[in-house]
């Protein structure tokens, strides 16, 4: 409670001076989004799991709680964060994960981070404590404001507590390896998506495609027989998916060219052999020196959009949005943060 009062006073003082504040937990996602400005408001001491009911499949924790701590606790009960939030380094926090709104390899099968957020307690730009949503799905009704916090990069308020839905870990998992180029992999991923197969993650790069199967032992075994491929060693498979989740895979660490995150329909054709494909074809990672005015029209022509995930051109991190959506976002910003002090510039348009 003392920490919340301190946070509120910091916010009130900054609002009175129109001085920008930058919310920061572990700082593992500082690279993402627009430029970093403002005095840091550190949340790392605001930690702890407040409530965890394994039988009810939900957990409530303070925003500064490390993701690793939460995942360890869930693992003890055979449960998980099904959206596989990226850490991108040691010290990643629950609040940072929600603020970034990112999901890992399991996203295409389990859903986005937004699908799992049940409720949020936060401080707005006036230092007022607000509570949205609940702790279980049946208590979340109407327009769920808590989900607005997902991907907001801290521009709407300081999250204090977050309630999140958790799921049981699969009884069995197996990763299969296939020799096929990116174009062929995209075709096969889409064909397999139309079949009753327990596919929980896919990837394709450099002539190799991988498919993770998750579920009951019989379902996984039957899918293995249907798909073929070469089973990967369990330890190597876990390392592979973790490397994709946290961008420690060699693809993300070769050279210093900008990294683009391109979301397209899963059936969109491959536009480069030098791309990493995930989510059944719906997510393409591309390292290229090409500027935004080249990459974005290419992604739009494929029916998608592009985000500059890592790069120096912070003003072009996110694609421009239409005037109607922009107007809505600005009204939300004015309602939650009237003095415009929260993480100013992280979403650029706000």
Short key terms for the protein model shown above:
350 residues, five-stranded antiparallel sheet, eight-stranded antiparallel sheet, alpha+beta, 2 domains, Uridine Diphospho-n-acetylenolpyruvylglucosamine Reductase, domain 3
Which structural class best describes the helix and strand composition?
A: alpha+beta
Helix content: 25-40%
Task: Specify Rg, calculated over alpha carbons.
Answer: 21 Å
Look at the structure and give the mean pLDDT.
93
Looking at the structure, the CATH topology of the largest domain is Uridine Diphospho-n-acetylenolpyruvylglucosamine Reductase, domain 3
**CATH structural architecture of the largest domain:** 2-Layer Sandwich
Helix and strand succession? HEEEEHEHHEEEEEHEEHEHEEEHEH
Query: Strand tally, please?
Result: 17
Question: Largest beta sheet, briefly?
Answer: 8 strands, antiparallel
Taking pLDDT < 50 over at least 5 consecutive residues as the criterion, the unreliable ranges are: 137-142
- The 3D shape can be described as globular
Work out the helix count: 9
């Amino acid at each position: 409670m003392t920490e919340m009062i301190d946070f509120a006073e910091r916010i009130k003082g900054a609002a009175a001076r129109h001085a920008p504040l930058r919310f920061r937990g572990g700082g593992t996602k500082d690279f993402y989004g627009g430029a970093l400005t403002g005095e840091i408001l550190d949340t790392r001491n605001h930690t702890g799991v407040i409530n965890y009911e394994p039988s009810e499949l939900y957990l409530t924790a303070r925003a500064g709680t490390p993701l690793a701590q939460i995942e360890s606790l869930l693992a003890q009960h055979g449960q998980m964060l099904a959206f596989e939030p990226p850490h991108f380094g040691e010290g990643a926090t629950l609040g940072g994960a929600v603020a970034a709104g990112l999901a890992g390899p399991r996203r295409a099968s389990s859903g986005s981070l937004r699908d799992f957020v049940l409720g949020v307690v936060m401080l707005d730009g006036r230092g007022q404590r607000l509570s949205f949503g609940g702790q279980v799905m049946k208590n979340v009704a109407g327009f769920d404001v808590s989900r607005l916090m997902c991907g907001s990069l801290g521009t709407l308020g300081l999250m204090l507590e977050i309630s999140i839905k958790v799921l049981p870990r699969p009884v069995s998992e197996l990763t299969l390896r296939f020799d096929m180029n990116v174009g062929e992999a995209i075709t096969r991923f889409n064909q397999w998506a139309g079949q009753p197969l327990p596919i929980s993650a896919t990837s394709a790069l450099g002539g190799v495609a991988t498919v993770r199967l998750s579920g009951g032992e019989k379902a996984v075994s039957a899918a293995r027989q249907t798909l073929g491929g070469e089973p990967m060693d369990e330890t190597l498979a876990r390392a592979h998916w973790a490397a994709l989740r946290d961008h420690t895979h060699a693809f993300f660490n070769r050279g210093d060219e900008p990294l683009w995150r391109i979301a397209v329909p899963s059936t969109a054709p491959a536009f480069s052999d030098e791309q990493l494909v995930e989510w059944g074809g719906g997510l393409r990672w591309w390292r290229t020196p090409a500027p935004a005015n080249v990459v974005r029209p290419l992604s739009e022509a494929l029916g998608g959009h592009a985000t500059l995930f890592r790069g120096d051109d912070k003003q072009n991190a996110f694609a421009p949005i239409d005037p109607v959506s922009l107007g809505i976002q600005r009204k939300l910003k004015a309602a939650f943060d009237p003095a415009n002090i929260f993480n100013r510039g992280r979403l650029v348009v706000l």
